[in-house]
Specification:
By secondary structure, the protein is of the alpha/beta class. The chain folds into three domains: 67 residues, Arc Repressor Mutant, subunit A; 96 residues, D-Maltodextrin-Binding Protein, domain 2; 98 residues, Periplasmic binding protein-like II (D-Maltodextrin-Binding Protein, domain 2). Helices cover 42% and strands 22% of the residues. The chain has ten helices and 14 strands. The strands form four sheets. A five-stranded mixed sheet has the order 4-3-5-14-6, sandwiched between helices. The protein is elongated and about 70 Å long.
């Protein structure tokens, strides 16, 4: 099917903004030209891509399918443009995805080193959960991601480099002092309020899986998006927080780690990039830090 790229480009801007007027502004063409392009594309595809009303624009199911394919293509084109910029003295750009916790407690020193060595390079960091970071990589919105591993959402299309081992720990304040200096089982943990990351995160999947292996149903008291906030709530005695050990304060009189009867397996941080597309020079330089 021979369809002009510009029609897909117009479709992408309308689909991503859900506004014909906003798309016209970003494309620097008239709103009428946007409407005509969308009509031409719908005619060529013999599909209705948008539901139009006076107040809003919505994608049809067919439009959503098309967007899932067009968005990665647009991001690949942008990546190609960025790599051309790499050949100039600007230093190119590094686009990386990672969770707040990984950024704060692990990545900052590496980003600082990269910035000092390549001061003209543009660094863009996108904070998302490890699961959502994989989606960013799939759609071409980032060049590499640093995530918790193992991760059931990764496919064999990615290059995975393990870069740091860590342990998860249960921590509590003196409100739970009777658990200090004793072995605590998973079953006994169910008697207490557990604070953990929200569902659809690798950490949540990991902990639920551990309890299920012992035929226990884990029902957390509080689920949040931030390990730092989990620690804050543990410090005031709202419950027992489950967090990676690398985000614990080096010295703290407010919290202690529980000694678990069942062994908690180690996990790892891994840096991942897409082997299906060329990797930018800036990204290669960053990856070299983990050789």
């Amino acid at each position: 099917m021979d369809i002009n790229y510009e029609l897909y480009k117009v479709f992408y801007y309308v689909a991503s903004t859900l506004s014909f007027s906003e798309a016209s502004k970003q494309l620097y063409i008239s709103q009428s030209a946007v409407s005509q392009s969308i009509k031409a594309l719908e005619t060529k595809l013999d599909q209705t891509l948008f539901i139009r009303s006076t107040k809003k624009v919505q994608l049809t199911p067919e439009g959503e399918i098309l967007l899932r394919h067009i968005e990665p293509a647009m991001n690949l084109i942008r990546r190609g443009e960025a790599q051309l910029v790499d050949t100039t003295s600007t230093g190119g750009q590094l686009r990386i995805g990672a969770s707040d916790t990984i950024c704060r407690y692990f990545l900052v020193p590496y980003l600082e080193k990269f910035h000092k060595e390549f001061p003209n390079a543009h660094i863009k960091v996108t904070n998302e959960t490890s699961v959502k970071c994989i989606g960013l990589l799939e759609s071409g919105q980032v060049d590499c991601i640093v995530i918790n591993y193992p991760n059931s959402h990764l496919s064999n299309l990615y290059s995975i480099k393990k870069i740091k081992s860590f342990k998860d720990v249960f921590v509590a304040n003196n409100a739970f002092s009777k658990l200090q200096d004793k072995k605590v089982s998973f079953r006994e943990m169910l008697k207490y309020p557990i604070l953990m990351l929200e569902k659809n995160t690798t950490t949540s999947e990991f902990l639920h899986s551990l309890f299920q292996q012992h035929e226990l149903d884990l029902v957390p008291e509080i689920e949040l998006t931030s390990n730092d906030l989990l620690l804050d709530l543990a410090k005031i005695g709202l419950g027992i927080a489950f967090v990676p050990d690398y985000c614990l304060p080096k010295t703290s009189e407010e919290l202690f780690c529980l000694d678990m009867e069942e062994e908690l397996p180690s996990r790892e941080l891994a840096i991942v990039y897409n082997t299906r597309v060329p990797v930018s020079r800036a990204t290669l330089e960053f990856l070299n830090y983990f050789e």
